[in-house]
Structure formats: structure tokens, C-alpha cells
Amino acid sequence: MTRLDGRRSYDGAVQLQSAPDLPAEADVVRLSAAGRIWRLVSAAVVLALLLVGTVWGDDSAFPFGPFRMYATRADPDVPVISTRVVGMTDAGAEVRLSGGEVGLRRAEFEGQLPRLEEHPQLLGLLAESYAQQHPSAPELVSVQVVQRRFELRNGTQTGAFSDTVLVAYALAGSS
Q: pLDDT class for 88, splitting at 50, 70, 90?
């Protein structure tokens, strides 16, 4: 801000304040021999857990095991797998049910894959949720869990892919 006399508000002298009086330093308290031993043993146990987890651990041992997502490198020529859930209409059109369309995020869904393979009728719940959230959408006749494998060469997509239906469930009342 410029004042009437042409000076700016930050042109004035700065008043420095002296530091407050600090209390005298307390005497150093030495750790007892038992305290030192306790700290050394604790540090050794933590380091041993980290070493064992690093060599033999997996994601479930985190933080004492490596979090493989960040600790390993993916092979640039191994296909990338993407899982999705689709509903099929009577006309054969595919309706996406993953990605929040039914209130379930992809990671949550992928964590339930073994359960869905054992109990495919649970896919009917996704169809019901979709129907409630999209009442004017075409009626679904089946729900499928599909894995798409994208082929890579040197870490770049080749354009080739393949789809595999892991679980399929025909909805009641469909032909």
C-alpha cells in the first residue's frame, strides 16, 4: 500500500525484538545401563524383523515386509490385467457396472473375486444396485466379471488384448 507521501508500507524501518531470556539448560540425565540394554535390544528386534520381512515377507507383513507394489519392478513384456464387471442387456449390449456405477470401487471388487467365484449369485446384487441407481436404463439379463489382458512389448501396449469371463450369472426372469 502506498501512503500519501509516496512511501510504501514496507519501506519503514523494522523494529527487531530481543529474544526472550531462556532458562538455563538442565543437567544431562544419563541413561542407566538397563535403559541402554533395553534400547539396544529393541533396536535389534526391529532390525531383525525388517531383515526377515525383506527377505521372506510379502505384502501382508507390511511394514516389516516389502510393499511389492513399490519394492519390485514389473516385467515390461508381461501382460497387464484389468478386471471389470459388465451387465448384458437383452439386445447384447454391454453395460459397465464397475468404476462406481454400483457404489463399489474397483479395488474393493477385486478383493472379493474369490468370494464371487464361489457364490456367483452375489453378482445379482450388483445388477439390483444398478437398476436402483439407473431406473430408466435397459434391463440386464446377466452379469459377468471379465478380465482383459493387454499385451505389452518393452512396456508399451501392442494393441492386442484378450478377454476372459471369470464369472457369469444369469439374472432371474431373463430368457
A: very high
